[in-house]
Design a protein that fits this description.
heterotrimer; A mainly alpha (577); B mainly alpha (252); C alpha+beta (268); A: 577 residues; mainly alpha; 17 helices; disordered N terminus; B: 252 residues; two-stranded antiparallel sheet
Amino acid sequence: MATTAHLHAHAAPQGFVRKYIFSLDHKVIGIQYYFLALTAVFVGMFLSLLMRIHLIWPAAKLPLIGAIQPETYLSLLTMHGTIMVFFVLTTAPQGGFGNYFLPIQIGAPDMAFPVLNMLSFWTTFVAFVVLIAAFFVTGGAPLHGWTGYAPLSALPNAGPGEQLGADLWITSIAIFCVASLMGALNFITTTLDLRAKGMTLMRMPLTVWSWFVTAILGLLAFGVLLSAGILLLLDRNLGTSFYVPLVVVNGQVMGHKGGSPLLWQHLFWFFGHPEVYIAILPGMGVASQLLSTFARKPIFGYRAMVYAIMGIGLLGFMVWGHHMFMSGMSPYSAFAFSLMTMSIGVPSAIKTFNWLGTLWGAKIRLHSPMLFAIGFVSLFVSGGLSGPFLAQPVLDIPLHDTYFVVGHFHLIMGVAAIFGIFGATYYWFPKMFGRMMNESLARVHFVITLIGTYAIFMPMHYLGMAGQTRRYSQFTEVAYQTKLLPLQTFMTYAAFITIGAQLVFLFNLFWSMWKGPKASDNPWEATTLEWTTATPPPHDNFGGHTPIVNHGPYEYNVPGASKDYVMQTDPATASAH
Amino acid sequence: MGDQSFEDQMSPTGTREPRINNSGAITLPPFIGGGGDGRGGGSPDFGDRLRRARLGLAVGITPVIMLFVSLTSAYIVRQGLPTLDENTNKYVHDWLPVSLPWLILLLNTFVLIVSSVTMELARRDITRESALAPVRSIPGVSLGVEKRFPWLGLTVLLGIMFLVGQWMAWRELEYRGFFLATSPSSSFVYLLTGMHALHLMGGVIALSYAALITLFHKPVDSRRVVIDVTAWYWHFMALLWIYIFALLEFAR
Amino acid sequence: MGLALLCIIWLITFLSTYFFVAKTWWLPKGVAAAAPAIDHQFAFTYVAMGIIFVLAQCALGFLVWKYRDRGDARKVSYSHGNTKLEVLWTTLTAILFIGLNLMGSPIWAAERFEPPKPDAVPVEVTGMQFAWYFRYPGMDGKFGATKADLIDPSSGNEAAIGLDTNDPASKDDIIAGTMYVPVNREVDLQLRAIDVIHSFFVPAFRFKQDAVPGLRIHMHFTPTEVGDYEIACAELCGMGHYKMHGMVKVVSQADFDKWIAEREAAKQ
């Protein structure tokens, strides 16, 4: 890795392969990550559509696919979760936008280790291919859910898809871990070492702060998931008993003895909970950036925001047990986990209040990125407030593993994070591709998506309270659940409409890439460093010179200044006269 | 994040931030004044590269530590965990202590510690070489052809010896009846030693690469970065091994 | 767009809240001793969160509309925050969240820390792909031995849970596919699973606990109303997860004794 430090030299690479495929330029790699995530999100969304169709019309014969079987439903569910969590929510905000804009926002010419950066993307790509391959092997994709609870995930004869499909699944995750570790290493080193002159830690945009803390979380969490995955592979293929005790599957005594199924859950959730914050923190950063920019007002409580990001990151490592209140783990430890989990509500509330405080007395320009930032805040509030229910072990008794949980995490780490990604896309698209996106289409996209996602995920809370268990491919077997089918039908229709609206986004994205009006260097009149350079930025980001930073990131409507914004590189003595 | 006075001193323009009220100049809150700990993102010279690589290594070994911390906690917890005997429905302690081939392992430890020393000598060698390189490049100045002891090659050799030694230890374990899947205790022994061996192999590959580019007359600075970073990694591997050995020996 | 956004956010907020307040879909009627306390805690949390939800969403919608850029020369208030306000809302949320936590703790303690009463009805629950079996110890009050290599799920009942018929204690064990429990008497539940993790979930009892292979988990609950209640498996256990359900029949003590006697007689 050391030798790669400066290979990108000063001249832009020539030739298609070096320029667009195995490129060392963090901007190209960021776009590669973005398009990988875009592919993944449409695959994942398509799978969720199939799931919703199967729930309502189980016998429906679909073209090419045929009727979906209950075990296929579980495969879809596993792959939907894995693709969305790893290849969309981890990849797009961090790998995509983080890669593209972290170096520019701190005034660096590239990442600290460009070759490592390229390797990190291509390793992620391989992980994605390996995961998708699980669909096409004998037995199909695994049915153990994205959480892969052992022993179900450790026993090849526990169900269809648990043979080669499950091996591919865990291999893909292990490869993804390695890729994420490489990425995290690069992000941290870059942030610590490559900041431009004057870019103190407390002058970094909140996006940079959130990418930085996210990278630290990834660095600490993915190593643990990797070790969990290695143990699972050993149990599956070499007969060890880390997770599997003496079990009898289909009347056949398996060879394992003395393993602990809870060990997997501890290791998995030690990774899994920080992963939630890996998904949402960049969204919070983007929301802060957008709210301040379009409210034309400094972010309310910059320091508090930074400390809240750190607090969320730190507490995120102490709460994994709240996924395991019903697991048979010691009920005494539930106290500590519950208290820690409730404490996370505090920094989250600080962020929400500060966002509202930023809007107070502002002059809000309702451009499309801002709409998604406001949507983010709304979804973050809605998804966050169901958290204190699940964080209490007593309330977790009726709610655990019901649709209440599904609604909760889809709102907060799914849709809210996706709104962060959409906001970032509309905001940075002009910088990345040199053209503006269509504003009317963006509004249509926003309105349908906001209402649609609420229509899909809010009813899940009602279903969960009524006792609807998650991961059921049919609700016909349990009488009290059959009564809830009309609401499920409503959600399926809402899903159709919402997914349809995403095609509007897709059209807007590709159409604007070639046909959109040309963008200026700073179309939003924003202050951070990416808006000081050309559109799109040159190979070394700032065209041969290094920016010198004189101001904090969100200086809008500074009294006495000539314009309503002071860019970070404006002279320190800039005055109205 | 430094305090105000520090930031003022470090202000890149050498002037204090304007704090004039009611006069039209920008009044910024105190905490965002001045510049300071950013180091500048311009093209890095060699010193920057080395520092960055060392920083990268420090960050990079964090997940390695996390990996072994998680395995250690799994090991300790599993050791104290009673398991349910399906036939009697009672919880029993079934932890089977593994009798380690400690003579082989002790020898391996010795080899690894020696390799750490030779690694350090190689690192200091290349540091001196790179310090002298500018002098050497002055036309007409000759420092003579120095015959260097191949510390690097010796380290690679010792590293490979350690790996072979570990393989022998595994064979000895199998001879004693402890296979990978015999019991959770033996699984953990193979797992911990195996993961360490895998990481050490990474170090061997990096060192071989450094030795290889010596043959191709790459600039001394490039070699120095590789060797320096690998040396620190190598010392970390030695420490990690001592930790694992102690864990397996004293927490059986 | 500002007004539209206000309408959309408020509409979503009021619609969502309406269905909560109207209890169109709600927790099923609680029929276990623990249910009132859990429901109370639920209601309290729900009111607290509901108030914050409505206030925050309404404020968001209002601010967006009130402070939209109308193209006028209105001055924007330049502020980097307010430390007093930060401290205030940090303290308030901390008190609320930690208070909620402390309120719920005694209920959890009563549920999970207390051992079952001595007169509780012992029932062993065995989860397997994809059925529940219930075992009663019979007259001797002792569960007979089970053996892993005797387990044969296809044969049902005794064979399915691997009962060792040579063990004298197992002679009077009763195994059933439907759970019978007497009303107003504590049930001492022992949960086990023979293949993968399952979860024993009876919404009406506010009861849920995973059954984990390699563990034997003791739990207790007290049903308070006669009736039939559904059990649903709440932990993904394989392709038949959705149909792994069962029934709890809560009956009077007399009916329970009668049922036990009938089953014992059938065994002879």
